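Appendix B. One record, verbatim.
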Amino acid sequence: MNFIKRLLETNFLGNSILRYLISILIFASISIVIFVVNKIFKRIIDKIKDKKDNVGLRLTQFLIRRVSPLLYIFAFLISLEQLNLQDFRTTLHSIERGFVAILIIYLLTAVIDFLYSEILISSKLQDDQKKAMRILMLSIKIIIVLLGVVFIIKNFIPTFDITSILTTFGVGGLIVGLGLQRILQDILNYFAIIFDKPFVEGEYIVMGDTQGTVSKIGIRSTRLVSLSGEEINIPNSVITSQVIRNWSRLTTRRVQVNIAVALETEKEKLQRISDLLKKAVESVEKTAFAFARLSNFGAYSVNYTLAYYINEIDYNNFMRLQEAVNIAILENLRKEGISIVYPIQVVRLEELNKKEA
């Protein structure tokens, strides 16, 4: 017994053998508890998951899988508290606080990665939305890491004064901030465009006096190609502040045409014109007749109003179908001997000839 007592009281590097054994015992006990709790949680989650699978369960399972190895390191740091570390104790406490900060940073970034993967799986995001989501998640992770680094530096270097540094760069930061304000607005509006999707690349849009086909949606600006072929570069903040008309998403376009026929046209022919206009519209694919009526009288004409719809998204095809309807109208009226009035000037010389006679 005396031998064992003397052995346990033997000092090695400033600590007795007994202290080392207690430290090892604490580490082993905490490790066993972590292992058992981990197994219990896994079994409970597996049983619940068989009945009902949801994001909360998957997140819990994900965190347990990520955190478990780090808890053993934390158990080791706790076991070191039993040793007489003298001057190293303050450093040990700093290491422990730094480890906790790293653990929090690791967990937050892990949660962000998990949420990102869940969004990709559960949502039908397009490629540009996935790109925007990656940029957004990366930005959040960078901010978290930077805050964690500041905390860790402050922990190991107590004299580190972040307030004075921010004050020193306050004026410069204000100037830079004012300069970057518009850029940041453009970047934030980029996410608004990507996720709200008022338009996508390849669509034709109109904003005030500006119109064209969207060629690229960038982080800072969006590029349009006008009908004349020139490229128009518009900041995203300007785009989101205007009313956007997206012509490419028109599923049905309404067309209204005014047709003037000669005033001398016979009554029977005038009564048939509405039917002739209807047949002209119905002879062309992707059209829907609305109405055709005698609307008013001109100085030398009888005016009809024709309205119909063309079910075509592409603008070029829409113009092709409208052209086909116009040609069909001309053909139907000419077959019936009905002439369309065009601007002419009639000079009557009857009175002048009588006076000369």
